[in-house]
Amino acid sequence: MTSEPDTPSSADDSLPPPEQHARQYAAVRDAHETELIEDYVELIGDLLDHAGEARATDIAARMGVRQATVARMIRRLNELGFVTNEPYRAIFLTERGRAMANESRKRHAVVLQFLRSLGVDDATARIDAEGMEHHVSEKTLDVMRDFTATHNKGGG
Amino acid sequence: MTSEPDTPSSADDSLPPPEQHARQYAAVRDAHETELIEDYVELIGDLLDHAGEARATDIAARMGVRQATVARMIRRLNELGFVTNEPYRAIFLTERGRAMANESRKRHAVVLQFLRSLGVDDATARIDAEGMEHHVSEKTLDVMRDFTATHNKGGG
DNA sequence: AAACCTTTTTAGCGTCGGCTAACTTTTGTA
DNA sequence: TACAAAAGTTAGCCGACGCTAAAAAGGTTT
Fold first, then answer.
1. What residue spans of chain B are helical by DSSP H?
2. What span, in angstroms and rounded, lies between the C-alpha atoms of B48 and B24?
3. Most buried of A102, A155, B106, B120 (most Cβ within 10 A)?
4. At residue B51, what are phi and psi to the nearest 5 degrees?
5. Could you say which of B18, B112, B137 has the minimum Cβ distance to residue A62?
6. B94-111: per-residue pLDDT in tens?
7. What is the pLDDT of residues B1-31, one digit of tens each?
8. Which stretch of DSSP H or E encloses residue A93?
C-alpha cells in the first residue's frame, strides 16, 4: 500500500551509514561523560539556593551514594573549575559552575514541563526528565519549549 | 503579569524529598548499566537482519570503538546469555537476545518517530533518540505513541 | 578539657569500558 | 601452496565511579 503510516522517508528500515552511526553513539558517550558532572553541579546549585549551603552529607543523600563517593567527585569538580571548597567546609560554585548549574536547571525544567504538558504524570515525568535531560539537543529543546508554550495556556 | 507560562503548580521551585531524589538518580544509574548492553544487542540484531550476519568489524565501525572493545563486550553478552558465538565466527542472538533487540528497536522507533512528528529534523532526531531511548518509561512511550499516531496522518 | 558523635577525608578494592600492542586465525590472491 | 591482508583474540594500561573501612577534623555535651 502506498498510504501506509510509514512514509519511505520516515521508515526506519535501513541502517545509517557506518560513520554516521558511529557519530550517533559517540554523541551518547560524550553526553555520558558530562552527565554526572552536570547532575552534581546542578544539585549543588539547587542546594545552595534552597538550603543556603551545599554539604557533602546532603549531596550524598540526594544522589543516593556514599559520602566517600561525593568527596572524590567534589575534588574532581574542583579540579575542573566548577566548585571551590576548603577542607571540612561547605562547597560553593565558581562562575563556571554557576553557569552550568543554571543551564542544567533550565534544560531540566524545559524537559519536565514538556513531559507534563504532553500528559505524562508528575512522578513519571520527573524520573524521565532526569534521564532524558542530558540527551536532548538545543534544537529539540526549542521544539519542546514551543510545544509547552502552546499547549500549556490553561496551566499544567 | 499573572499569565506567565510558569504556573505555580508546574513551577520547579522546591527540591523533592531526599529519598525520592535519590530514587530518581538511582533510576538513571540503573538505566546506564543496561544501556550499552541494549545498544550492542540492538545493533547486532539490526546487522543480522540487514546484513545477514553480525561481524565484530562492523559492530566496531558502527559503535565507533575498537575491535578489542567489541570482543570483550561480546564475551560479556555471551556470559549474560544474550548472544552465542564461537571463536573467529559471526555472532548470533539467543532467544533472550532477540527479545531484547526487538524491544530496543521498538522503543527506538517510537522515540524517533515521536521526535520527527514533533517537528525535529531527521539528523537531530536520530541523535537525540539514540540517547533518550533508554530513559523513557513505558508510560511516556505510550504517550509518545498516541501523539505520533494523531499528529502523523499526513506523513512526516 | 575530655569524651563523644557527626561530618569529611583518605586509602584501597572491584567493575566497567575505552585504549594500544601483539598474537592467532581466517580469508583471499599470486 | 605460500604469502599477505583482514579479522578476531588476548593481555595489560588507564580513568571513572560505585563501595567499605578507618583516620582526621569539627561540633556538642558533660
1. 18-51, 56-63, 67-79, 95-118, 122-132, 138-151
2. 35
3. B120
4. -110, -10
5. B18
6. 999 999 999 999 999 999
7. 333 333 334 445 688 999 999 999 999 999 9
8. strand A91-93
